[in-house]
């Protein structure tokens, strides 16, 4: 059983790195194809790590719910503005991210709402959706049949770190979404 597990791990390792065809003997190549046939095309060894990182990232962000909004601040003892909150959360996990909401549009990899994942960064206009200039950011908190929820620091009604539905108001302000994890 131990040998089978080691062989299986070895096969998955090389299949996920794309080297199965050139590294494995021909007799194992068919086995690799069968074992990996049902894996998503993007499956690789970092997929679990990314999932764990997004869970840890959201848990950390959630621990700051209720910290007050404070313009131009990224200090949990004083408060956060939107980009201060997002940059503080990502920086805690070793990511080098910008401090301003405008700079987030040039960070990470642009994706679509249909391909959004927990941990992605939503980029919005400022509070006036007619002025199509970046002015707000938040982190995708959850995605389910009800839609997307995101965690952010808002100067609005909640006046601090809160979880908000990606509702019609925020859809009208939506500019883009980027993946950093």
UniProtKB/TrEMBL annotation:
Gene Ontology molecular function: any one: cysteine-type peptidase activity
InterPro entries: NLP_P60_dom (IPR000064), Papain-like_cys_pep_sf (IPR038765), Peptidase_C40 (IPR051202)
Keyword set includes Protease: yes
Keyword set, alphabetical order: Hydrolase, Protease, Signal, Thiol protease
Signal peptide positions (record): 1-20
Domain of life, source organism: Bacteria
PROSITE patterns attached to this UniProt entry: NLPC_P60
Residue ranges of domain NlpC/P60 in the record: 51-181
Gene Ontology BP annotations: proteolysis
Similarity remark: Belongs to the peptidase C40 family.
Protein's UniProt name: NlpC/P60 family protein
């Amino acid at each position: 059983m131990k040998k089978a597990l080691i062989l299986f791990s070895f096969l998955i390792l090389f299949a996920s790195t794309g080297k199965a065809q050139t590294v494995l003997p021909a007799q194992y190549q068919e086995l690799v194809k069968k074992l990996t046939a049902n894996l998503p095309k993007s499956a690789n060894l970092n997929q679990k790590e990314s999932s764990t990182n997004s869970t840890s990232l959201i848990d950390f962000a959630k621990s700051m719910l209720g910290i007050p909004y404070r313009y131009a601040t990224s200090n949990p003892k004083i408060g956060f503005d939107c980009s201060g909150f997002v940059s503080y959360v990502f920086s805690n996990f070793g990511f080098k991210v910008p401090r301003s909401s405008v700079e987030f549009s040039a960070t990470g990899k642009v994706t679509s709402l249909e391909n959004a994942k927990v941990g992605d960064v939503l980029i919005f206009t400022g509070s006036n959706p007619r002025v199509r200039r970046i002015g707000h950011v938040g982190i995708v908190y959850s995605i389910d049949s009800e839609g997307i929820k995101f965690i952010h620091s808002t100067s609005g009604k909640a006046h601090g770190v809160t979880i908000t539905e990606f509702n019609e108001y925020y859809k009208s302000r939506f500019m883009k979404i980027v993946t950093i994890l």
